[in-house]
Amino acid sequence: MIEKETSTLTGPERLEAYEDNWQTVMGAWFPGERVVLRGKNVFAELAECTWMEYLVYAVTGRSSPKLARVIEGLWSLSTSFPDPRLWNNRVAALAGTARSTGALAISAGVAISEASVYGLRPIKGALDFLYRADAKKEQGIAIESIVKEELKARRCVSGFGRPLTDTDERVAPVLDFLKTMESDQGKFVLLAFEIEDFFKNSRYKYKLNIAALNAAVAADFGLTVDEYYHLTTLAFTAGMFPCYIDSRTQEEGQFFPLKVERIKSISNGTRKWV
Amino acid sequence: MTDQSEKKREQITTNIWREEAEADNPFAAAKSYCADFDVYGDLLGKISLIEYLWLLFKLEPPSKAQTRMLEGLAVALANPGPRDHSVRGAMNAGVGGSTRASALIAAISIGAGNLGGAREVFTAMQYWQRCGIDLESWIEIINNPPREERADVWPEMEHAPGFDPNGASCPTPVKQLLNHLAAIEQNETLVWLQTQRKTLEQHAGSPLAFSGVAAATLFALGFEPEQAEMLFLMLRLPGAAVHALEQEKMGWSRYPFFGDGLTLTDDPGPVKSDD
Question: I want to staple A235 with a disulfide (CB 3.0 to 4.6 A). Which of A79, A93, B3, B93 is the partner?
Answer without folding.
Answer: A79
